[in-house]
Write a sequence for this structure.
C-alpha cells in the first residue's frame, strides 16, 4: 500500500465517473482489476527504503523526564463542571435573505 499513488487513484476514478466508463460489464471474461486498478498498478511508486527522520539513539544515561521531576502536583485535583442544555420547541427563526 505504500507504493500506491492516491493522486492517480483519485484522477482515474474521477475520469471513470465523468466519462461513465465501465457502467456495463464487457462481453467476455471478467476483468478483476478494472480500469482504476490497472491505472494504479501501472503507476506504482518505486521500491525503496524509508529514510530515518531522526537518528537512532542508543542507551542514553540522561532521561528526558528529569527536568520535570517534582513539578507535578502531589495530590489529585478535583474539578466540577456545571452544564446547562437547552432544547428549543420550534427552533430559531430563519435569517433574512438579502
Amino acid at each position: 500500500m505504500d507504493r500506491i499513488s492516491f493522486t492517480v487513484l483519485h484522477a482515474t476514478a474521477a475520469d471513470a465517473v465523468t466519462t461513465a466508463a465501465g457502467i456495463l460489464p464487457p462481453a467476455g471474461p471478467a476483468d478483476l482489476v478494472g480500469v482504476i486498478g490497472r491505472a494504479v498498478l501501472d503507476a506504482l511508486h518505486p521500491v525503496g527504503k524509508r529514510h530515518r527522520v531522526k537518528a537512532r539513539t542508543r542507551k542514553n544515561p540522561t532521561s528526558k523526564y528529569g527536568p520535570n521531576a517534582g513539578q507535578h502536583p502531589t495530590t489529585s485535583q478535583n474539578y466540577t463542571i456545571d452544564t446547562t442544555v437547552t432544547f428549543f420547541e420550534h427552533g430559531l427563526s430563519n435569517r433574512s435573505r438579502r
Summary: The chain has a mean pLDDT of 79. DSSP finds two helices and no strands in the chain.
